[in-house]
Design a protein that fits this description.
Oligomer: single chain
Largest sheet: 5 strands, parallel
Order of helices and strands: EHEHEHEHEHEEEEHEHHEE
Distance between the termini: 44 Å
Length: about 220
């Protein structure tokens, strides 16, 4: 049974999420604010965290950053603000999805199922590694380094990079990327893909040019 930590300072929101999550068979634990979430997540393991952003004390962005220092767990951000800056900031702190309030509890559960599905470890036949210059992508170890220095990526950025590299030199449509990286049951929009591509390029630094934009089509990871 997947364990989910629901973090929101509004009890009504927590109760609604808990009701729908229980119906889906999830085990729910609650936290009233960011500080409590960091404390609980540090002691217990969860398969997913649903995190509100606007909370007194430690906000969701900061709490997500603190949790990311010790745990790699998928995070869905909740916010009454839907501006692009907030979405980008949420993804930069390691969020896997971003849901704007007011939201449909059923849609949230669909997003939860999609994130949990994509978070399952991938089975590789052997130790698979891709190298190009100083860039090294270790699929089995789920590790990316540039000139020996580890590159910190969010879980979704890992998934996106791994899919691009595995299909290097192939033109990938936006639909193809969304379907295979987020899943058929993805409920976001094209901007989510563009935001992750932007963040991934930033993380790859001098190798950012390997991700080529194909206008009107999608993207391609170029390799010699």
């Amino acid at each position: 049974m997947p364990r989910i930590l629901v973090v929101d300072d509004e009890q009504r929101i927590r109760e609604v999420i808990k009701k729908y999550a229980a119906f889906e068979g999830y085990d729910i634990q609650e936290a009233e604010d960011g500080m409590q979430a960091v404390e609980i997540a540090g002691k217990e393991n969860f398969d997913l965290i649903i995190m509100d952003i606007m909370m007194p004390g430690l906000d969701g962005f900061s709490a997500c950053k603190e949790i990311r220092k010790v745990k790699e767990v998928p995070v869905i951000m909740l916010s009454a603000r839907g501006e692009e800056y907030d979405r980008i900031h949420g993804f930069e702190t390691g969020a896997d999805d971003y849901v704007v309030k007011p939201f449909s509890p059923r849609e949230l559960m669909m997003r939860v199922a999609a994130v949990l599905k994509r978070a399952k470890p991938q089975q590789d036949g052997g130790h698979e590694i891709y190298e190009s210059g100083g860039l090294k992508v270790d699929f089995t170890g789920r590790l990316v380094t540039i000139d020996g220095e580890r590159v910190d990526l969010s879980p979704k950025e890992y998934d996106l990079l791994f899919y691009l590299v595995r299909n290097r030199n192939i033109a990938l449509t936006r639909e193809n990327l969304i379907t295979n990286v987020w899943g058929y049951d993805f409920y976001g929009d094209d901007r989510t893909l563009d935001t992750h591509i932007k963040l991934l390029r930033k993380s790859l630094r001098e190798y950012s040019g390997k991700i080529v934009t194909l206008r009107g089509v999608g993207y391609r990871f170029e390799s010699e």
